[in-house]
Amino acid sequence: MTDSGKAQEIPWVDISRFHIHAELTEILQRLARDYPTLAALESIGKSHEDRDIWLMTLTNQATGPADEKPAMYIDGNIHAGEVTGCNVALHTIDMLLHGYGSDAEITELLDTRTFYIHRPACPAGWRGTVPDNAADAALIGAPVALV
């Protein structure tokens, strides 16, 4: 809520570009913070470069524990070059969270199901495709062709 008492508009995730690991971490942490009753973020391990491997769990916690509901697992990518899968995972998270309460089907899904969304499985290898340093920044911010 804002100072005026109006609901704050939570920005949608920008999937028109690829994001580096630090940006993905910030996005996932923001969504978990902004939707505390629907989203839980946990690191399920570390890469060999000590990067967190994130798992986002989506469900309405008020209607029951995540592990007691039928579930769907979505893997954003396993291999380093599968960068578009990460954006699909981000868009799915974003669509489910933003749609809750305004879209009846999404609301029913999160009330009765759990979504485990994992991206990327190999953050160290993925970095070679979407680099973290400015010297190799040609891909950072590169538009994604939406056809």
Strand sequence of the main sheet, in spatial order?
Answer: 1-2-4-3
What is the CA-CA span between the terminal residues?
37 Å
Q: How many domains make up the coordinates?
A: 1
Helix residue percentage: 25-40%
Low-confidence stretches: 1-7, 131-147
Strand fraction equals: 15-25%
Please name the CATH topology: Aminopeptidase
Mean pLDDT score, rounded?
A: 78
CATH superfamily: Zn peptidases
How many H/I helices? Answer: 4
Largest sheet: 4 strands, mixed
Order of helices and strands: HEEEHHEH
CATH class: Alpha Beta
Radius of gyration: 16 Å
How does CATH name the architecture? 3-Layer(aba) Sandwich
Quaternary arrangement of the chains shown?
single chain
Question: How many beta-strand segments?
Answer: 4
Provide an overview of this structure.
The chain is α+β, with helices and mostly antiparallel strands and 147 residues long. The chain has one domain (21-127): 3-Layer(aba) Sandwich (Aminopeptidase). The protein is 31% helix and 18% strand. It is built from 4 helices and 4 strands; from the N terminus they run αβββααβα. The protein has helices at residues 21-34, 83-99, 104-112, 123-127, and strands at 39-46, 52-58, 71-75, 114-119. The protein has a 4-stranded mixed beta sheet, with helices on one face. A hairpin with a 5-residue loop joins strand 1 and strand 2 (52-58). The longest helix is centred in the middle third of the chain and has 17 residues, at 83-99. It is globular, with a radius of gyration of 16 Å. Residues 1-7 and 131-147 have low confidence and may be disordered.
